[in-house]
Amino acid sequence: MVGSGAVFRVYNGEVIDVLTKKIVVQISYCAECSNILSSLFSIHEHGWTKIYLVSDSQTTIKAFQHNNVPWKLQASWNLFHLKCR
To answer: Is 9 in contact with 15 (CB distance < 8 Å)?
Structure first.
């Protein structure tokens, strides 16, 4: 069992929300992608429109930039795109 989390801050560093969840993932890359995707859904639900995403995994960031997320998360990634239209 693996846990993941995110901290949401405003421009001055003030924490405005946190996200934690259990994930059942065996590969750290997939865990990183899952965490980013969960964070994006949370951001969308809050109605926040200006974001700056930070991760210690450049590979993960590039996967989202190039629309190349792991196949196990592709359906969720596509749903996110539909919700943001």
So the answer is: yes
Tell me how far apart the alpha carbons of residues 14 and 23 are, in angstroms, rounded to a whole number.
27
10-30 pLDDT per residue, tens = 989 899 999 988 877 668 888
Spatial distance between the Cα atoms of 21 and 5, rounded to a whole number of angstroms: 6
pLDDT digits (tens, 9 = 90+) for 45-61: 999 888 888 888 899 99
Q: Which residues neighbour 73 within 8 Å (Cβ) at sequence distance 6 or greater?
A: 30, 33, 34, 37
Contact 7, 15 (CB under 8 A): yes
Q: How far is CA 25 from CA 11, 51, 55, 62, in A?
A: 32, 26, 18, 20
- At 2 the three-state DSSP class reads strand
pTM: 0.82
